[in-house]
Design brief:
2 copies of one chain form a homodimer. By secondary structure, chain A is of the alpha/beta class. The first copy, chain A, contains 13 helices and 12 strands. Chain A binds a DNA duplex (30 and 30 nucleotides) through α2 and α4.
Amino acid sequence: MINVKVTSQDVASRAGVSQSAVSRVFSGASASKATIAKVRKAADELGYRPNSLARAMITGKSKIIGLVVAYLDNQFYPIALQRLSESLQKQGYHILIFTAGNDAEATQKVIEELIDYQVDGIITASVGMSSNLTQHCATAGIPIVMFNRGQDGSGHSSITSANVEGGRKVAEFLTAGGHKRIAHIAGWEGSSTGRDRRRGFTEGLAANGQTPLDIIDGMFDRAAAAAATRTLMARSDPPDAIFVGNDHMAFAVMDTLRQELGLRIPQDVSVVGYDDVPLAAWGAYDLTTVRQPVNRMVEATVETILAKIEDPARPAQKIEIDGPLITRGSARIPKGWTP
Amino acid sequence: MINVKVTSQDVASRAGVSQSAVSRVFSGASASKATIAKVRKAADELGYRPNSLARAMITGKSKIIGLVVAYLDNQFYPIALQRLSESLQKQGYHILIFTAGNDAEATQKVIEELIDYQVDGIITASVGMSSNLTQHCATAGIPIVMFNRGQDGSGHSSITSANVEGGRKVAEFLTAGGHKRIAHIAGWEGSSTGRDRRRGFTEGLAANGQTPLDIIDGMFDRAAAAAATRTLMARSDPPDAIFVGNDHMAFAVMDTLRQELGLRIPQDVSVVGYDDVPLAAWGAYDLTTVRQPVNRMVEATVETILAKIEDPARPAQKIEIDGPLITRGSARIPKGWTP
DNA sequence: AGGGTTAATGCATTCGTATGCATAAGGAAT
DNA sequence: ATTCCTTATGCATACGAATGCATTAACCCT
């Protein structure tokens, strides 16, 4: 009771059985009713719980998933993290979490530490992987799933929303709304999400006979997005609509337009974001945006990684999940609009 | 190179030394220049990295800190998580993260799983601990630090901001501003933070000859806070100022006041929050609030838990860190106000 | 009652690293 | 050169649970 460490051996002695018997009871292997009862009783009395680390050593399965996440100030990620955590907990897995910005060096270090802990798999949220690192994980036999970021030819599985399609939807929506000078503050060019949304958007505009007024890389950063907004609005022909690469930046754009430049949204400028984080629905922003279906993305992520853990031979898959455009008050709504 | 698992034994063979020598090189114990070089070389060639789990088994130190966090939609916690993660990583520790709401049962389960993983310590962010659980951790010899939540008589260390003092500051500020009907949408009554802020606030009002117009428990929840706002404003003598128990709720209050009730802030109602999350500074809200100095709170948390890990005999300490009132545009600023 | 089959259990070993102990090697001092 | 001390290194064992193998108990059938 007062003893700090209770081992299966202790339980065995007290129950009058062998250590193996105790192990079998707790690992669900076969045992007679009688011994199960004896062991359970002794274990309860002693407060025994199996040591997960020792178990991990011998089985080679730590039941730990490494999670590397880049941004935590963008509300999208905490939400995703929460869902991931719940979902993995339910499956008996646990999350070893690391934060690493867009710093390749830091990412490298972090991933290696994850490997040291013998994680069964790694989920990266919006972080890139060098091919070097990829190799590392491959030889270590650790499956990787990229969440909200793809990487061509990396051989990793990835789960994203249908970003190209999403960009196109925004283009359709804004052109249908009669906008003639449409600008784009893009997500970071170094990310597949940023590039895909941009591509879908320009393609969508082209399909409607328009070209973007301007495209500026917002780096997924508030300050950069605010600066881009100023640049755009300082033009002699300022935009009448701005598609912003994610909600997090869109909020900065809206703040800048309203508080700093004294403009009205959507009367003077329409703003559309991407993600549909909870904050987008709050009254102060009421942002029209493309929804990334977090729940389904998380589900797919968990399924994918668990499947790959179970069968390492399973080929990588790139899953894209479609999300709707959610129309709110930040952008002019075309007459008779039905998405 | 292609081999999946490289052990210290493999390195030893290749370097022509014993396994102990390899161990000593990597654990920083003494070894001659010559062997260090040989071992390092062999290890590099094989891509060897020590197995943290095995190391944890033998040393009894996993270098893992368990983190249990309740709310992730309140921006305060992701930020704190990020800082905690960075700070602990720097000290060679890693975070096993769990989410658990205000559900005591879930908390229990989660903590037990943490113990199973032999974590060196546990940090709880805004989650309560039953005395039962407390006992559990104590016998397991695992130190606990409560972040942003205190618990009298629990014997745990806790790090909070000076909540009573903070509540008082708000009272002074609002009375100085000439407000006469001041209401409070409190943080959850079941939490020390909620209670302390409330107490400081009522004491502060009393010191200025006022009593709260009304106090409603907002449960740290947006919907509850919005409902409370409606209740307050439906009175025949609606408040001219509302102190809200944290920023997260304050945003909901502001949304309700402005979008739903068509009121102006601060002309019709002043709103003051608590936390000073980044979002509070964004243009759309521009919320006057009491800052919780996250950085210093995190520093103190890390220091406290590491100290307790190093010396388990060290007594629990309750640390309170003072934070300033940050005046912005959501509340009338008293003439000549200097905090 | 005896042979055969199945279920239960214990023994011994294993996972990969750290560490106490004993021994060997190297160096300094006389 | 001998002794003494320091520093390195290898050997063997330990951490705590899981598991293949061998043994034993239990049961069933004829």
